[in-house]
Design a protein that fits this description.
By secondary structure, this protein is of the alpha/beta class. It has one domain: Nucleoside phosphorylase domain (Rossmann fold). It has five helices and seven strands; from the N terminus they run E-E-E-H-E-E-H-E-H-E-H-H. It has a seven-stranded mixed beta sheet with strand order 3-5-6-1-7-2-4. Helix 1 packs across helix 4. The two termini are about 30 Å apart.
Protein backbone atom coordinates (compact mmCIF):
# COMPACT_ATOMS: atom_id res chain seq x y z
CA UNK A 1 0.00 0.00 0.00
CA UNK A 2 1.21 3.50 -0.81
CA UNK A 3 -0.14 6.46 1.15
CA UNK A 4 0.52 9.87 -0.41
CA UNK A 5 -0.49 12.67 1.96
CA UNK A 6 -0.44 16.44 2.19
CA UNK A 7 1.98 17.61 4.90
CA UNK A 8 3.37 20.76 6.41
CA UNK A 9 7.13 21.16 6.82
CA UNK A 10 8.68 21.50 10.26
CA UNK A 11 12.18 22.14 8.86
CA UNK A 12 13.66 25.08 7.04
CA UNK A 13 15.28 22.87 4.40
CA UNK A 14 12.01 21.14 3.45
CA UNK A 15 9.71 23.46 1.53
CA UNK A 16 6.43 23.58 -0.32
CA UNK A 17 6.46 21.28 -3.33
CA UNK A 18 9.02 18.87 -1.83
CA UNK A 19 8.43 15.11 -1.49
CA UNK A 20 9.48 13.20 1.64
CA UNK A 21 9.56 9.39 1.67
CA UNK A 22 8.54 8.75 5.28
CA UNK A 23 10.42 6.36 7.53
CA UNK A 24 9.07 7.15 11.03
CA UNK A 25 5.92 8.52 12.63
CA UNK A 26 4.77 9.97 15.93
CA UNK A 27 1.08 9.49 16.70
CA UNK A 28 -0.60 12.40 18.52
CA UNK A 29 -4.17 11.42 17.60
CA UNK A 30 -6.99 10.15 19.77
CA UNK A 31 -10.31 8.40 19.30
CA UNK A 32 -9.44 6.66 16.05
CA UNK A 33 -10.09 2.95 15.61
CA UNK A 34 -6.58 1.59 15.36
CA UNK A 35 -6.84 -2.18 15.42
CA UNK A 36 -8.66 -4.97 13.64
CA UNK A 37 -8.47 -7.17 16.75
CA UNK A 38 -11.94 -7.76 18.15
CA UNK A 39 -11.20 -10.43 20.73
CA UNK A 40 -9.84 -10.27 24.28
CA UNK A 41 -6.48 -11.80 23.31
CA UNK A 42 -3.56 -9.40 23.61
CA UNK A 43 -1.73 -9.02 20.30
CA UNK A 44 1.48 -7.05 19.92
CA UNK A 45 2.65 -6.16 16.43
CA UNK A 46 6.15 -4.81 15.84
CA UNK A 47 5.86 -1.18 14.79
CA UNK A 48 9.45 -0.02 15.38
CA UNK A 49 9.74 0.71 11.67
CA UNK A 50 6.24 1.71 10.56
CA UNK A 51 7.04 1.96 6.86
CA UNK A 52 8.23 -0.82 4.57
CA UNK A 53 11.87 -0.08 3.72
CA UNK A 54 11.72 -2.12 0.54
CA UNK A 55 8.60 -0.39 -0.81
CA UNK A 56 9.89 3.03 0.24
CA UNK A 57 13.16 2.26 -1.54
CA UNK A 58 11.29 1.43 -4.75
CA UNK A 59 9.45 4.76 -4.55
CA UNK A 60 12.62 6.73 -3.85
CA UNK A 61 14.49 4.99 -6.67
CA UNK A 62 11.65 5.65 -9.11
CA UNK A 63 11.63 9.35 -8.21
CA UNK A 64 15.44 9.53 -8.41
CA UNK A 65 15.59 7.83 -11.82
CA UNK A 66 13.15 10.37 -13.18
CA UNK A 67 15.65 13.12 -12.35
CA UNK A 68 14.28 13.90 -8.92
CA UNK A 69 10.95 15.25 -7.84
CA UNK A 70 9.61 17.80 -10.36
CA UNK A 71 7.67 19.79 -7.74
CA UNK A 72 10.70 20.48 -5.54
CA UNK A 73 13.35 18.52 -3.70
CA UNK A 74 13.23 14.78 -2.99
CA UNK A 75 14.00 13.64 0.56
CA UNK A 76 14.72 9.91 1.02
CA UNK A 77 13.71 9.77 4.67
CA UNK A 78 11.75 11.76 7.19
CA UNK A 79 9.51 11.53 10.21
CA UNK A 80 5.90 12.68 10.42
CA UNK A 81 3.87 13.71 13.44
CA UNK A 82 0.23 12.82 12.94
CA UNK A 83 -2.11 15.22 14.72
CA UNK A 84 -5.82 15.22 15.30
CA UNK A 85 -7.63 17.26 12.66
CA UNK A 86 -9.27 19.07 11.18
CA UNK A 87 -7.14 21.99 12.29
CA UNK A 88 -3.70 23.41 11.70
CA UNK A 89 -1.08 23.82 14.44
CA UNK A 90 -0.54 26.62 16.88
CA UNK A 91 2.85 28.37 16.70
CA UNK A 92 3.84 26.70 19.97
CA UNK A 93 2.96 23.24 18.66
CA UNK A 94 4.97 23.77 15.48
CA UNK A 95 8.04 24.90 17.42
CA UNK A 96 7.68 21.97 19.85
CA UNK A 97 7.47 19.34 17.11
CA UNK A 98 10.35 20.96 15.20
CA UNK A 99 12.54 20.97 18.33
CA UNK A 100 11.69 17.29 18.79
CA UNK A 101 13.29 16.60 15.40
CA UNK A 102 10.12 15.82 13.47
CA UNK A 103 10.33 16.66 9.76
CA UNK A 104 6.71 17.05 8.63
CA UNK A 105 3.23 17.24 10.16
CA UNK A 106 -0.17 16.09 8.93
CA UNK A 107 -3.46 14.48 9.93
CA UNK A 108 -3.07 11.10 8.20
CA UNK A 109 -0.67 8.12 8.20
CA UNK A 110 -1.99 6.86 11.55
CA UNK A 111 -3.78 4.52 11.99
CA UNK A 112 -3.32 3.61 8.32
CA UNK A 113 0.32 2.56 8.68
CA UNK A 114 -0.39 0.51 11.79
CA UNK A 115 -3.47 -1.18 10.35
CA UNK A 116 -1.46 -2.21 7.30
CA UNK A 117 1.25 -3.62 9.57
CA UNK A 118 -1.33 -5.46 11.65
CA UNK A 119 -2.48 -7.17 8.44
CA UNK A 120 1.11 -7.88 7.39
CA UNK A 121 0.90 -5.53 4.39
CA UNK A 122 3.77 -3.44 3.09
CA UNK A 123 3.02 0.28 3.53
CA UNK A 124 4.91 3.37 2.45
CA UNK A 125 4.05 7.00 3.13
CA UNK A 126 4.82 9.86 0.76
CA UNK A 127 4.57 13.33 2.27
CA UNK A 128 3.68 15.93 -0.36
CA UNK A 129 4.78 19.12 1.37
CA UNK A 130 2.24 21.89 0.89
CA UNK A 131 3.49 24.56 3.31
CA UNK A 132 5.88 25.47 6.12
CA UNK A 133 4.03 24.97 9.37
CA UNK A 134 3.43 28.18 11.30
CA UNK A 135 6.13 28.96 13.87
CA UNK A 136 8.82 26.82 12.24
CA UNK A 137 11.01 29.67 11.06
CA UNK A 138 10.79 31.43 14.44
CA UNK A 139 9.16 34.40 12.74
CA UNK A 140 6.20 35.64 14.82
CA UNK A 141 4.88 37.42 11.71
CA UNK A 142 4.84 34.28 9.57
CA UNK A 143 1.30 34.00 8.20
CA UNK A 144 -0.82 31.07 9.36
CA UNK A 145 -1.35 28.11 7.05
CA UNK A 146 -4.55 28.28 5.04
CA UNK A 147 -6.36 25.42 3.35
CA UNK A 148 -6.45 27.40 0.11
CA UNK A 149 -2.67 27.83 -0.04
CA UNK A 150 -2.01 24.20 0.95
CA UNK A 151 -4.46 22.83 -1.62
CA UNK A 152 -2.94 24.99 -4.38
CA UNK A 153 0.50 23.43 -3.84
CA UNK A 154 -1.01 19.96 -3.50
CA UNK A 155 -2.90 20.38 -6.80
CA UNK A 156 0.37 21.21 -8.55
CA UNK A 157 1.85 17.89 -7.40
CA UNK A 158 -1.04 15.54 -8.19
CA UNK A 159 0.21 14.87 -11.74
CA UNK A 160 3.77 14.35 -10.44
CA UNK A 161 2.47 11.84 -7.89
CA UNK A 162 0.52 9.92 -10.54
CA UNK A 163 3.61 9.79 -12.73
CA UNK A 164 5.74 8.56 -9.83
CA UNK A 165 3.24 5.83 -8.99
CA UNK A 166 3.00 4.75 -12.65
CA UNK A 167 6.79 4.32 -12.69
CA UNK A 168 7.12 2.75 -9.22
CA UNK A 169 4.26 0.25 -9.16
CA UNK A 170 5.65 -2.02 -11.93
CA UNK A 171 9.00 -2.05 -10.06
CA UNK A 172 7.50 -3.43 -6.82
CA UNK A 173 8.77 -6.99 -6.31
CA UNK A 174 6.10 -9.68 -6.61
CA UNK A 175 7.72 -11.56 -3.74
CA UNK A 176 8.69 -9.03 -1.05
CA UNK A 177 12.04 -9.42 0.63
CA UNK A 178 10.94 -7.36 3.64
CA UNK A 179 9.67 -8.44 7.07
CA UNK A 180 6.27 -6.69 6.97
CA UNK A 181 4.33 -9.95 6.75
CA UNK A 182 6.36 -11.54 9.54
CA UNK A 183 5.98 -8.56 11.89
CA UNK A 184 2.25 -8.26 11.17
CA UNK A 185 -0.46 -10.79 10.39
CA UNK A 186 -1.95 -11.90 13.73
CA UNK A 187 -2.35 -15.46 12.42
CA UNK A 188 1.45 -15.71 12.12
CA UNK A 189 2.15 -14.54 15.68
CA UNK A 190 1.88 -16.14 19.04
CA UNK A 191 -0.85 -14.51 21.11
CA UNK A 192 -1.19 -14.36 24.86
CA UNK A 193 -4.64 -14.58 26.48
Amino acid sequence: MIGPCASGSLRGDIGPGDLVVLDQLLDRTWGRSDTFVEHPTVDHVSFADPYCRELSGVLFDAASRAGGWPGGRLHGAGSVVVVQGPRFSTRAESRWYARAGIDVINMTQYPEAYLARELGLCYSGLALVTDRDVGVEGDPDMPPVTIEAAMAVLAENVAHTRSLLATAIPAIPREPGCTCLVSGAPSLRTTTP
